[in-house]
Write a structure and sequence with these properties.
With 146 residues, the protein is mostly helical. The protein has helices spanning 8-27, 34-45, 51-58, 62-74, 96-117, 122-137; strands at 78-82, 90-94. It has one domain (10-118): Arc Repressor Mutant, subunit A (Orthogonal Bundle), CATH 1.10.10.10.
């Protein structure tokens, strides 16, 4: 019988959970979760400008995206604007506070990535990413969202 410590899945899962925990620890003082940051980042860095665009981009159902947007709006990080000619149409935009926070947390994301890849050479880190991409490409069962 092989030890779990010899399982690739165990180590990939441990890396993932450890990185998520570290990043979550850095987000928490700002009132953000990984998912709320993902929504904010989709708006700031990927220019997603409607609730449905955000949901589709992140692979979320519309209800989950709407709840995350609600929280960001209450925090003053985004604003929703209804189209005057079509009340069903809503655009979302990031406030200056939200823009600043997204950039600050992007720096923290890089710090976490650097912390976990410090033991690797740049070539090893790039190779690891390529191997991970190849492994995911072979999978038939992928999660729909982050």
């Amino acid at each position: 019988m092989t030890s779990i410590h010899q399982s690739l899945g165990y180590w990939v899962s441990l890396i993932s959970r450890s990185m998520e925990a570290e990043f979550s620890r850095r987000l928490a003082p700002h009132g953000l979760t990984r998912m709320s940051y993902a929504v904010l980042g989709a708006m700031v860095f990927d220019k997603q400008s409607t609730p449905s665009d955000v949901a589709d981009f992140l692979g979320l159902d519309r209800g989950a995206a709407s709840r995350l947007l609600d929280k960001l709006e209450v925090q003053g990080l985004i604003r929703r604007d209804r189209d005057r000619s079509d009340r069903r149409s809503v655009s979302i935009r990031v406030t200056s506070r939200g823009e600043t926070l997204a950039h600050e947390m992007q720096v923290q994301s890089r710090v976490v990535n650097d912390m976990f890849t410090a033991a690797l050479t740049p070539d090893q880190a790039a190779e690891f990413i390529e191997m991970a991409k190849a492994m995911v490409a072979r999978s038939e069962a992928r999660p729909n969202s982050l």
